[in-house]
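lol forgot to send this yesterday, sorry. struct tokens for the thing we talked abt
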């Protein structure tokens, strides 16, 4: 386990559990949390034994978003090139799963949206209340939410600032799993373990292609796909995958 005051990391199997730990401030994001999350992403990316990350919050709350008191005091909750919380604009190659208990408000919701999958407690509360403070959800909420759910539903959340439950988030299709309170981390780790059975280069290629194809003309997207396929075809993992299939055994991935 690696720990800072604000962000803890723990290796569980092939997953890195990343926990925001500012319970006295409902895990609100200040400069220290942003630095801790950015460092956790570096740890996840650098360790070849880690195949996926799970992001959660301590004390039954995911994150209340930006620490307004810290912001008023001049602290920045952003990391240059990586965005809010050191995560919302980070280009990760490994899957990242949000395990949301309690409140995921403002930037907290945006941290979840920056992940590849979301596991939500049924009684969790998600919201983008920035418009109530004269702001907009600039950590990716305004940009990402209308791409994830129908326009009118996204605009309801963005323009009213009203929170919704984890159950509704599941019905909207934002969450992959909706589970009883207290079970999100366990379910997220199960998903991470399932992903770890797949080839790491292929997982990274999926993430890169999804990013490249977002809003791009099909011709450009297929060109990027051709590059990814050529890279995968030349990898040792492709040969291992095919060999393992013919030998009726589980593949042993090398990530190369």
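and heres what i got for the seq, position by position
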């Amino acid at each position: 386990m690696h720990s800072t005051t604000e962000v803890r990391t723990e290796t569980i199997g092939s997953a890195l559990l990343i926990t925001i730990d500012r319970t006295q401030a409902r895990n609100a994001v200040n400069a220290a949390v942003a630095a801790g999350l950015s460092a956790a992403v570096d740890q996840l990316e650098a360790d070849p034994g880690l195949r996926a990350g799970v992001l959660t919050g301590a004390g039954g709350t995911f994150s209340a978003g930006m620490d307004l008191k810290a912001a008023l005091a001049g602290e920045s909750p952003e990391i240059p090139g990586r965005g809010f919380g050191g995560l919302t604009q980070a280009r990760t190659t490994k899957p990242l799963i949000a395990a949301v208990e309690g409140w995921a408000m403002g930037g907290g919701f945006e941290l979840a949206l920056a992940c590849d999958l979301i596991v939500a407690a049924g009684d969790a509360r998600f919201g983008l209340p920035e418009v109530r403070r004269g702001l907009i959800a600039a950590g990716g909420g305004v940009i990402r939410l209308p791409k994830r759910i129908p326009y009118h539903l996204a605009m309801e959340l963005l323009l009213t600032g009203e929170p919704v439950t984890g159950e509704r988030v599941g019905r909207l299709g934002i969450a992959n799993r909706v589970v009883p309170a207290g079970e999100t981390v366990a379910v997220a780790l199960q998903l991470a373990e399932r992903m770890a059975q797949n080839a790491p280069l292929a997982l990274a290629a999926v993430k890169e292609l999804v990013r490249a194809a977002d809003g791009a003309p099909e011709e450009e997207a297929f060109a990027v796909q051709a590059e990814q396929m050529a890279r995968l075809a030349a990898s040792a993992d492709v040969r291992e995958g095919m060999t393992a299939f013919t030998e009726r055994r589980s593949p042993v991935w090398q990530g190369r």
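The mean pLDDT is 95. anyway ping me if u want another try
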